[in-house]
Amino acid sequence: MFSLVIPTYNEAQSLPQLLAEIRTVLGSIDYEVIVVDDDSPDQTWAVAERLGADDHRIRVVRRTNERGLSSAVVTGFAAASGDVLAVMDSDGQHDPAQLPALLAAVQRGADVAVASRYREGGSTGEWVESRRIMSRVGTWVTRRICPAGVTDPLSGYFVLRRTSWEGVRAALRPSGFKILLEILAALPPTARVGEVPLVFRQRIAGHSKLTFAVQLAFGRQLLRLMLRQMGVEWTVWLLLALCIAMFLWLLPRALALSPLYANRAMPQQAEQTLRFHADREGWLLSDVLLQRVAADAIEVLHRRHRRGTDDETCLRLFFDLSPPQPCDASSTR
User: Fold this and answer.
1) Which stretch, 139-148, 157-166, 278-287, 299-308, has highest mean pLDDT?
2) What average pLDDT does the chain have?
3) Could you tell me if 291 and 300 are in contact, meaning their C-beta atoms sit under 8 angstroms apart?
4) Cβ contacts of residue 86 below 8 Å, gap of 6+?
5) SS3 of 307, please?
C-alpha cells in the first residue's frame, strides 16, 4: 500500500481540491491519505472528516496538543499502513501529478525519491526574487550535509520506503518544517536517492506559513545538523569562531558604554538623567536604548510609536538637564 501523509493547518479551502486531484492521479493504485491536522481554527480537520466519510481511503488525525509540520509527518507515518510512505503540502503548491513518478522511482530501487525544484525541468514557479535567492542559498548550504547529487534537500514533497524511514527514525529530532533534511542527513552512505522535477505551483487558497519564526527554527536545525556532521574537532573550531565574531560585534558597544564601568558615580548619574528626560518628555523607558556615554551626556535611541510606523531618533541627554538635542547637532551646543 502507498500511504500519503498531508500535514494541515488552516487549509480548509485548499484541501477538497487537492484531494480530488490526488484521487484522479492515483487512480487504481492501492493508497491511503492521512490528513494530520494541528487543530486548525478554520476546522480543516472537520472538512477532511466529511471528505473521508465519502472515501474510506481518507483518514484524519487531529492533534490538539502538538504543533509543527515535522512532528505531524512523524505522527502520520506512525499511523500509516503502507510499505511506501509519502509527504506533500496541503496548499496545492505541490503538484499531485508527480506522485506516480515518485512512487515509480522508489519501486525501481531508490530509498528516497524527492520532488526537486532544481532538477532539470523543475522550477520555483512565480516566487518573488527575494524568496528565490533565500531558497537558493539555503539549498546550497544544506547540500553540504546531504547525500551527493541531491539538488533540493529542502523540498517538502518526497516518497520513501518504510524500511528507510524505520532505519533513520531514532536519529531524528523532528522540529520545524524541514523533515526531509533530517532524513537525508541521517541516511547511510549507501542509500539511493532519486529525484523527479517539480514545478512549484501557486497555492490554492490561504496564506503562506513562512514566518520569521519558521526561518529562525530552520537556522537552528541547520546548525545542529552541521555540527553533528562535522564532529567534535570542527564543532570546537566553529564555536570558537562564533565566540570571536560575537566579541567583535559587541566590542564597539562596550567601548561606547565604557564610562559606566570606569566611573563609579556614572551609572547613577546616567540613570537619573534618563529618568528625568523620560518623565519630562512622556517617554516609556522600554522605548529608550542607551547608545553611548560621554563626559557630559548620554546618547539614546528613542522609538516613537505611531500608527503604521515606528520612528527612531538619536538624542543627546545632558547631565545638566538642559533640553535634549539630536545627536548630530550636539557639537553646536
Assistant:
1) 157-166
2) 82
3) yes
4) 2, 3, 4, 5, 99, 102, 103, 158, 159, 160
5) coil
In the chain, domain spans: 2-210, 259-332
Q: Provide the 3-class DSSP secondary structure of residue 293.
A: strand
DSSP conformation letters of 240-271:
HHHHHHHHHHHHHHHHHTTHHHH-TTHHHHHH
Q: How far is CA 221 from CA 40, 216, 234, in A?
A: 25, 9, 17
**Has this prediction a pTM greater than 0.90?**
no
| Type and span of the H or E element at 325 | strand 325-326
Whole-angstrom distance, CA of residue 312 vs CA of residue 301: 6
Bridge partners of 91, per DSSP, are: none
> Please, are residues 324 and 317 in contact by the beta-carbon 8 Å criterion?
yes
Domain range 2-210, CATH class:
alpha beta
Distance CA 302, CA 253 (A): 17
Nearby residues of 72 by Cβ (< 8 Å), 6 or more positions away? 5, 7, 36, 38, 63, 66
- The residues, ordered by sequence, that sit 6+ positions from 12 with a Cβ below 8 Å of its Cβ are 40, 42, 43, 44, 46, 47
Q: What SS3 class is residue 182?
A: helix
Compute the distance between CA of residue 164 and CA of residue 180 in angstroms, rounded to an integer.
12
